[in-house]
User: Which sequence fits this backbone?
């Protein structure tokens, strides 16, 4: 209902929680991400009040450790972090999409088990989380989210899935975006489009917006 408001609160608060947390985010990325996401979730609950019952958002964050050249990623829901990698073994530039995160879906065995043990029900295509076999509410399509109070009691959590990735010389850029992009365009298409405007990030952003608009208009 108020997903945009939830996303605005999360996007403005998460970085601060990472920077001001009890743990050095580069020395203890898992603890830092877990605390920052939990505090951000608290901010969304406080900011939306009773409207948080049916309002929430997903989130993705990446920390770069320049000393080790490692990217630490944290994901809640179906936002994604995707690397653009240039294949150096071809005569012409060929780009590869390297996902750093995986969507948190209720159809995944470990996620489904947690939801069912919490009294939730997973059904539908695509799979959604419900509070009973009647499938009336909440009908959320992710197994982890920020906010979404009505889903919290049935196993949908705000704890991020955290991973680390060692950068390679051929890794050239990183795209972080919500499902508004990834539901419309596959990873490889996003990477190939951004690669065309590698040194013009604002133009690349405009090109992505246009491709999403076209994809959505074709579905109507």
Assistant:
């Amino acid at each position: 209902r108020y997903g945009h408001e939830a996303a605005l609160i999360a996007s403005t608060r998460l970085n601060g929680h990472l920077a001001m947390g009890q743990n050095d985010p580069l020395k203890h990325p898992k603890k830092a991400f877990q605390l920052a996401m939990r505090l951000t979730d608290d901010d969304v609950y406080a900011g939306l009040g009773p409207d948080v019952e049916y309002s929430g958002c997903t989130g993705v964050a990446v920390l770069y450790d320049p000393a080790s050249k490692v990217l630490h990623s944290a994901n809640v829901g179906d936002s994604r972090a995707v690397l653009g990698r240039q294949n150096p073994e071809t005569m012409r530039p060929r780009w590869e999409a390297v996902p750093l995160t995986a969507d948190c879906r209720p159809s995944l065995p470990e996620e489904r088990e947690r939801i069912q043990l919490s009294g939730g029900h997973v059904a539908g295509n695509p799979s959604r989380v419900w509070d009973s076999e009647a499938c009336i509410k909440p009908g959320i399509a992710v197994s982890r989210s920020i906010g979404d109070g009505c889903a919290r009691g049935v196993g949908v959590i705000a704890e991020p899935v955290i991973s680390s990735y060692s950068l390679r010389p051929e890794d050239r850029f990183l795209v972080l975006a919500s499902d508004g992009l990834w539901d419309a365009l596959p990873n490889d298409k996003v990477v190939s489009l951004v690669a065309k405007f590698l040194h013009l990030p604002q133009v690349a952003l405009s090109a992505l917006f246009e491709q999403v608009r076209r994809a959505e208009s074709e579905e109507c």
